[in-house]
Design goal:
This protein is about 60% helix and about 0% strand.
Length: about 120
């Protein structure tokens, strides 16, 4: 078991460390596994991949909000689960765009939260 977990960590650690390391296909796969959690037992590697459906949007939002001029302004009362639901819906509704960068997927999935100063400006 330890060897399997170690192997999974080694596979994940070779990913490039830049912001666009995930595209919509990767995000879609992770969210499919995330949605399967209640339906079947996932392997440790599948659990890690499923977790990316939560951690990628959360990390993207944290990084995006640190920008001096963010394009997306999510209201404080919106929970992470709602954001994930919006991302999943966008990916389900737009299969032809899943090859786009993860950051582009996130922006398009959350466009309804476009910052007011951009809409009026």
């Amino acid at each position: 078991m330890k060897a399997l977990v170690f192997a999974a960590l080694m596979v994940l650690s070779v990913e490039p460390a830049y912001s666009d390391w995930m595209d919509g296909n990767d995000l879609f796969k992770s969210c499919e596994l995330y949605q399967a959690i209640d339906k079947r037992l996932l392997s440790p590697l599948e659990q890690t991949i499923a977790g990316e459906c939560l951690t990628y949007p959360k990390g993207w939002l944290d990084g995006h909000q640190a920008n001096a001029h963010p394009l997306i302004c999510v209201p404080a009362e919106v929970r992470l689960g709602s954001i994930v639901d919006m991302v999943i819906k966008y990916l389900d509704d737009n299969p032809g765009k899943r090859h786009h960068r993860g950051s582009e997927i996130m922006f398009n999935a959350l466009i309804e939260f476009e910052c007011p100063d951009l809409v009026s400006g």
